[in-house]
């Protein structure tokens, strides 16, 4: 089968790989019909995630058709079209029981933080991803959800990660009616967080990025205020000025580690590495928040964060929350929001590219070419 394959930093290509097989009675084999490239894949692509091995296949945002099932899978049948959450979750461990499906212990017992994730290096369990023709889906009774008849496949694939992550970013912010919400990052996650902030009652939603075309999209899609932080120079000062010196009630970091590398370099004069815990957007989020406010972090970081202004956070009495989105927990309500037209996820997809052209697809998404917001890879049918 054809599969995206990592060959080293910023080098990916399509390769012929063996078909995945049922390895456990609770496995399913899914024929992939759509797989997105995510900002999280860029951390891998740029070589910034430890233990990303040459030869791995990325891809944690995919939908497809069930081709084969292990003997213990009772919730699915061959031929079902399924949304597969990016978290691999056993459904039974102490964390899954609390609906913390992103922190499943059994799917990634080596790690103390994250659970298993499809196609996300050996720090997330070493599972192959779905940017391929076929993929093995473990714990198939737990994660996959059959796509409703009425749902467009482009909406379905956005429910594997972007919609739940944007929604959870807003949810973790604990937004109260009328709150001012500042969001750092106008990638798919930041834009979706802006859209969802209104659902929680925000009174004002402000998004920062450096890409004007993404800010324009965010303004149209999520009816938010947008600012290019390069023209502003100092978004923290701006947030103070625009809130009578108080700061934002809620700040959301939808950027993560190395995405802000060049900004960070101008501040610290040294190269940023995910392992070193670079954190420009997080610094801005903490420093822009009101006393007693909440900072919600969905941007992905390495294990340490030595540039986090923890003193400011403590002295302001901030609450900092973060996690991988718990996709399974959120899917029922988000499917309703798509059904009722409250959220239109597919509008965010700007590029549909054949899987065979995966190298171009990564370059376009990574370099933000051609107005790219979200890219979907389409395997040959
Ligand atoms: P993306 O790379 O498409 O978007 C990031 C955006 O941030 C870009 O538009 C970039 O120009 C902008 N940016 C860079 N530095 C900035 C700064 N200092 N301030 C404001 N904006 C800045 O990525 P995405 O797909 O939107 O994902 C965003 C983050 O969310 C990534 O770190 C990704 O790994 C993470 N993520 C987390 C989860 C989760 O479950 N927690 C799920 C999906 C993605
Ligand atoms: Zn993702």
Strand content: 15-25%
Q: What is the name of the CATH architecture of the largest domain?
A: Alpha-Beta Complex
The CATH superfamily of the largest domain bears the name: Medium-chain alcohol dehydrogenases, catalytic domain
Report the average pLDDT across residues.
Answer: 92
List ligands, each type once.
nicotinamide-adenine-dinucleotide, zinc ion
Considering the chains and any ligands shown, give keywords for the structure.
globular, Quinone Oxidoreductase, Chain A, domain 1, 2 domains, alpha/beta, binds nicotinamide-adenine-dinucleotide, Rossmann fold, 381 residues, six-stranded parallel sheet, binds zinc ion, 17 strands, seven-stranded mixed sheet
Give a summary of the structure in a few sentences.
With 381 residues, this protein is α/β, with parallel strands linked by helices. It has helices at 39-45, 94-97, 153-158, 162-172, 188-199, 212-222, 229-232, 235-241, 261-268, 280-288, 310-316, 327-339, 358-367; strands spanning 2-8, 11-16, 28-37, 62-69, 81-84, 87-88, 116-117, 134-137, 145-146, 180-184, 204-209, 225-228, 248-253, 289-297, 319-322, 349-354, 374-378. Strands 3, 4, 5, 8, 9, 16 and 17 form a 7-stranded mixed beta sheet that branches.
Structure description:
This protein has 2 domains: 2-161 and 326-378, Medium-chain alcohol dehydrogenases, catalytic domain (Quinone Oxidoreductase, Chain A, domain 1), CATH 3.90.180.10; 162-322, NAD(P)-binding Rossmann-like Domain (Rossmann fold, 3-Layer(aba) Sandwich), CATH 3.40.50.720. 29% of the residues lie in helices and 24% in strands. The chain has 13 helices and 17 strands. α8 (235-241) runs parallel beside α10. The longest helix has 13 residues, at 327-339. It is globular. It binds nicotinamide-adenine-dinucleotide (NAD) and zinc ion. Zinc ion binds next to loops. Nicotinamide-adenine-dinucleotide is lined by residues 38-40, 42-43, 161, 165, 184-190, 208-211, 214, 229, 254-256, 259-260, 263, 280-281, 298-300, 324-325.
């Amino acid at each position: 089968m054809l599969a995206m394959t990592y060959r080293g930093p910023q080098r990916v290509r399509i390769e012929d790989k063996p078909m995945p097989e049922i390895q456990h009675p609770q496995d399913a084999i899914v024929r992939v019909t759509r797989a997105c490239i995510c900002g999280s894949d860029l951390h891998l692509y740029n070589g910034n995630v430890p233990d990303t091995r040459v030869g791995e296949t990325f891809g944690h945002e995919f939908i497809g058709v069930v081709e084969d099932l292990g003997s213990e899978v009772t919730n699915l049948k061959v031929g079902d079209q399924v949304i597969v959450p990016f978290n691999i979750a056993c459904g039974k461990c102490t964390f899954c029981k609390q609906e913390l499906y992103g922190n499943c212990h059994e799917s990634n017992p080596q790690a103390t933080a994250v659970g298993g994730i499809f196609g996300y290096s050996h720090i997330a369990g070493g599972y192959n991803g779905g940017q391929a023709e076929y993929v093995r889906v473990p714990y198939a009774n737990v994660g996959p959800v059959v796509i409703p008849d009425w749902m467009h496949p482009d909406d379905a694939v956005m429910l594997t990660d972007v919609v739940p992550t944007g929604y959870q970013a807003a949810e973790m912010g604990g937004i109260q009616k009328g709150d001012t919400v500042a969001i750092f990052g106008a990638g798919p996650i930041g834009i979706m967080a802006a859209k969802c902030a209104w659902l929680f009652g925000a009174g004002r939603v402000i998004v920062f990025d450096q890409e004007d075309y993404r800010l324009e999209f965010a303004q149209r899609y999520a009816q938010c205020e947008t600012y290019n932080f390069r023209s502003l120079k100092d978004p923290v000062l701006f947030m103070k000025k625009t809130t009578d010196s108080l700061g934002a009630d809620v700040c959301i970091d939808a950027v993560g580690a190395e995405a802000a590398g060049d900004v960070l370099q101008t501040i610290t004069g040294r190269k940023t590495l995910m392992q070193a815990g670079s954190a420009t957007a997080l610094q801005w989020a903490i420093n822009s928040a009101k006393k007693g406010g909440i900072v919600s972090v969905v941007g992905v970081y390495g294990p340490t964060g030595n540039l986090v202004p923890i003193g400011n956070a403590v002295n302001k009495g901030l609450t900092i929350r973060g996690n991988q989105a718990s996709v399974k927990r959120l899917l029922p309500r988000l499917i309703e929001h798509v059904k009722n037209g409250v959220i239109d996820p597919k509008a965010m997809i700007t590029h549909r590219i054949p899987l065979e052209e995966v190298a171009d697809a990564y370059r376009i998404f990574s370099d933000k070419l051609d107005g790219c917001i979200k890219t979907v890879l389409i395997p040959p049918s």
